[in-house]
């Protein structure tokens, strides 16, 4: 299996979970997370330097939209300025907790620039996520 074909790991995890094989499900999950981080680092290097790794196919991010996950909050832990961000999306998670996503950037560098501002304002859990064709990709800058 191509180590950077992340859907393969997700399928393995689902199969192992169906078989109640927690050990192999966890092993596949750890591999998925490892290669997701590596793939994200390879992409970040590519957009910063323009040097493309010929061994890795980054087509899954062509035409992607980058957004920023601000974090998960409830009404008591929510930052006072949470609704001041552009293009804010609130996702209810239950138990009065919500996930907040903001921004809509057509390139990673623009999203990263705004992320740096957010981190300086105390959003320590904020990270960049990517969507393509309306679906979240495995790219995550956390």
Describe the SSE topology.
Elements: H1 6-18, H2 22-49, E1 65-74, E2 89-94, E3 97-105, H3 108-120, E4 127-132, E5 135-140
Antiparallel strand pairs: 1-3, 1-4, 2-3, 4-5
Brief sketch in words of this structure:
The chain is of the alpha+beta class and 142 residues long. It has helices at residues 6-18, 22-49, 108-120, and strands at 65-74, 89-94, 97-105, 127-132, 135-140. The protein folds into 2 domains: 6-49; 59-140, Alpha-Beta Plaits (2-Layer Sandwich).
Radius of gyration: 17 Å
Mean pLDDT: 83
Number of helices: 3
Question: What is the makeup of the main sheet?
Answer: 5 strands, antiparallel
Helix content: 25-40%
Which secondary-structure class do the elements indicate? alpha+beta
For the terminal residues, how far apart are their CA atoms? 25 Å
Shape: globular
- Tell me the CATH topology of the largest domain: Alpha-Beta Plaits
Q: What sequence of helices (H) and strands (E) makes up the elements? A: HHEEEHEE
Strand segment count: 5
- Which spans of ≥5 residues are poorly predicted at pLDDT below 50? none
CATH class of the largest domain: Alpha Beta
Strand arrangement in the largest pleated sheet:
2-3-1-4-5
Number of domains: 2
How much of the residues is beta strand, in percent? 25-35%
CATH architecture of the largest domain: 2-Layer Sandwich
